[in-house]
Amino acid sequence: MNYRQLGNTDLMVSELSFGTWAIGGAWGKTSDDEALKALDVAMDAGVNFFDTADVYGDGHSEELLAKATKGKEDKIHIASKFCRAGDIHDPDNYSEEQVRTYLENTLKRLNRERLDLYQIHCPPFKILKDGKVFEVLDKLQQEGKIRYYGVSVETVEEGLFCLENQNVRTLQVIFNIFRQKPLAELLPKAKEQGVGILARVPLASGLLTGKFSKDHQFEDDDHRNFNQNGEAFNVGETFGGLEFAKGVELSDNLKWIADDRENMTRASLRWVLDQEEISCVIPGFKNVKQVEDNLRALSVPSFSEDELIKLKAFYQKEVHAHIRGGY
């Protein structure tokens, strides 16, 4: 396992880490036993960072992380997120009293006294511009409740705005072969300012695994069913903002990336890892097999300069115009 510094913090995180939305819920059937086994496999492989949120299974993913990391609290770093358990448009949802309540509940579920990274969970731009929530986070940091804080954003514009706040230490962005826009301005500026980048949705909700056909049916409780067109939350969080059938078509046109890289999953993660501005990539998982598959991305070949140019042109000519969700 290779480790990268998380921005200008003192945290060194595994370059391939994991997000825990899927084991919490909203991705179809899950098994807690299998999830805990998968977490153990990840940690045994050197993974020392996990991203979660209080709304992932109404806190269930946080509870699973508490079980998996018991006795390893000093070695395993955890990032969580807040705000979406309430009305994200209501300024009172970001008051000191409410944010403190969110944090205390998260710490209780995680069985920790301090959180390594606390992130605002894709709030409306107006909340970020208001700025009061940052003052709350500053206070919690001064009290030692959180080590650092950051923002999970939906758009490049929001990310650039957050970079203006010197206490924002990380940005979490949707970034994958289908979502390359951050490469142009956001990622270079973040690196320049020492802000860590967490790359989420790196497999475009599974599209970049190459395993779907256009007639695939997702389970009722899977967000890839109930949020295909943004019915429940920002459409960019599902399939990277692509309409499913179009995404399958585009994925089929990318099968060449698996040449010499074993499969599309590993190739797609390798592409994200090849971007020097990325602190770590956080794919999701539901079982041991998926964790092992994702970890194999660390050992497959990087992309050549010619391949990177080809993928950039593919994004610009074939993909960008079809992205929904604000990017």
Secondary structure blueprint with pairings:
Layout: E1 3-5, E2 12-14, E3 18-19, H1 21-24, H2 32-44, E4 49-51, H3 60-68, E5 77-82, H4 96-110, E6 115-121, H5 125-130, H6 132-142, E7 146-152, H7 156-162, E8 168-174, H8 186-192, E9 196-200, H9 223-226, H10 244-252, H11 264-273, E10 280-281, H12 288-295, H13 305-319
Annotation keywords:
two-stranded antiparallel ribbon, 8-stranded parallel beta sheet, 10 strands, AKR, 36% helix, TIM Barrel, 327 residues, 13 helices, globular, alpha/beta
Task: Quickly count the helices.
Answer: 13
**CATH topology descriptor:** TIM Barrel
Radius of gyration: 18 Å
Number of domains: 1
Structural class, judged by helices and strands?
alpha/beta
How many angstroms does the end-to-end distance come to? 32 Å
What is the CATH domain class? Alpha Beta
The counted number of beta strands is 10
Mean pLDDT score, rounded?
96
Major sheet attributes:
8 strands, parallel
CATH superfamily annotation? NADP-dependent oxidoreductase domain
Specify the overall morphology: globular
**String of helices and strands:** EEEHHEHEHEHHEHEHEHHHEHH
Catalogue the unreliable spans. Answer: none
CATH architecture: Alpha-Beta Barrel
| Beta-strand content estimate | 5-15%
Helicity level, as a percent range? 25-40%
Major sheet strand order: 3-4-5-6-7-8-9-10
